[in-house]
Amino acid sequence: MSTLLEFLGSTGFASMTFGNALMIVIGLFFVTLAITKDYEPLLLVPIGFGIVVGNIPLVEGMALSVYDEGSVLSYIYFGVSQGVFPPLIFLGIGAMTDFSTMLSNPKLILLGAAAQFGIFSTIIGALYLGFNPAEAGAIGIIGGADGPTAIFLASKLAPHLLGAIAIAAYSYMALVPVIQPPIMNLLTTESERKLHMRAPRTVSKREKIIFPIIAFLVCALIAPGAIVLIGMLFFGNILKESCVTDRLANTARNAMIDIVTILLGFSVGASTSAAYFLTPQSILIFGLGAVAFSIATASGVLFAKFMNLFLKGGDRINPLVGAAGVSAVPDSARVVHMVGQKNDPSNFLLMHAMAPNVAGVIGSAIAAGVLWTMMLN
To answer: Where are the alpha helices (DSSP H) in 158-226?
Structure first.
């Protein structure tokens, strides 16, 4: 009987806390959203199940969690805590990204830049709430709706907030179809949502090859702190556009990015143990993340309307396209297209929306590099 009681005392049931139970429910909710609503399943399934794993009460003396030195999960989490996984994700993104629409209509790059206003406005809010400058910078990047960038910057500026920032960033990326449409409809009129844009011009192969080289040099010189992310992004794009490294490009955009996404999502989820995650700071981070994402969406839409004051005829921009300036590729571009189709089934905005969408990826990476540089000085 004493052996049986000792065994029962060592089980997770005996050590389960309310916080652990709550986090397990949240993890299962993420998995349910991914399966039933198809909200970013490639992210929410690994993260959600990782949350469940990370909140199973542990046996004292056994190295099992991401925070236990020498545990298997701690070795996987190393790629998150040291910022290894995000650049590999960027390599895969670069290998699957077509910059043609952005090159065919360069003025749409400004919409990607405008959406980054959400980052810097949130930094001000975080400072007001008592976070130090480094923490505020790491939290603000959530406004870019770019999970890998948020993880990379948090690992450099605020490692102790990494779990909350990562979960917030990926949660809002998954909820793009829920958060963005109400903001887009609120800030635009029906006639604006029905606006048709001129078809993009054809971009030559030479332009596609030259662009990543020149863009990297310009971006790296502006924000040296973004070299790793920007470098991997444009390196992946050269692999794709050169047409002589198809095997490498296919590996980067398929097998490699899938493997890294699995490891990153699962280990991030496993880092959300209630003891580390359920804190007042985490709640504030989630609130600030929602504000950041909303401001970024609104900024893109409003800046598109501002640009239309100076544009005429076929050069005018459908303001919905501005919402794609956030870096949630390609979900925000798809949402723009869906909202446009709902108002006018003959209006095809997807290709136009991809321009500020990929520009937003570049913009958030540059913003992260600038913040990293500024917070170190």
So the answer is: 162-174, 176-187, 190-193, 205-222
* Token pair listed for 166: 């990562």
Residue 9 reports pLDDT greater than 80: no
| CB contact set of 370 (below 8 Å; sequence gap of 6+) | 222, 223, 225, 226
Q: In angstroms, how far is CA 149 from the centroid of its own chain?
A: 7
C-beta separation of 35 from 42 below 8 A: no
User: Which is higher by pLDDT, 8 or 108?
Assistant: 108
What percentage of the chain's residues is helix, strand, coil (to nearest 5)?
80, 0, 20
Residue 41's contacts (CB-CB under 8 Å, 6 or more residues apart) are 34, 35
Q: Are 73 and 66 in contact (CB under 8 A)?
A: yes
CB 67 within 8 A of CB 210: no
Percent of the chain with pLDDT over 70: 96
C-alpha closest to that of 173 among 25, 30, 369: 30
Quick check: helix, strand or coil at residue 309?
coil
Count of H helices and E strands in the chain? 22, 0
pLDDT digits (tens, 9 = 90+) for 81-93: 998 999 999 999 9
Residues 6+ apart with CB under 8 A from 93: 233, 236, 253, 257, 329, 361
Contact of 321 with 77, CB cutoff 8 Å? no
Q: What is the CA radius of gyration of the chain?
A: 22
Q: Which two tokens stand for residue 180?
A: 């963005």
Report d(CA 2, CA 7) in Å as an integer.
Answer: 9
Residue type, 338: M
pLDDT in tens, 356-369: 999 989 989 998 99
